[in-house]
Amino acid sequence: MNLVTDIMLTDPVLCTSDMRVAEIKYLLKKYDYDEMLVVDSLEEKHPIGLVSLADMDLPEIEEADMPSDVSALECMREIPAVVLDSSTLEECLNVMRANHLDRIPVVDLNGHFEGIIEKDQIAKTLY
């Protein structure tokens, strides 16, 4: 039985809810990410959202007095689902399909971030 912990990425660059748009844009470009996971803090690491360049290019952000001072919390999207670190790859894939996700955070029983897994990784492992 293959578990998500067998193939998940455990050390992606994370963004905190108070991180500013300028820094998030820099990190997205530096690491060539489509989007970043937003966590409540780097100590607790509870996933609370996702943010992408498109999320930060909204008119209300561009029209803010200081657009670069807008925080991740102000422009992130909610995470529709997470999976537990005890989940099988099949269970994870089912959750991803049901929520139309290409990647999903993996958390422990306390909701702390453990890793992230992509649909492509699962497909390569299972098929």
TrEMBL record:
The keyword Cell membrane does not apply. Residues 8-66, 76-127 form the CBS domain. The keyword rRNA-binding does not apply. It holds the Pfam family CBS. PROSITE patterns: CBS (PS51371). It comes from the Bacteria. Keywords: CBS domain. This is CBS domain-containing protein.
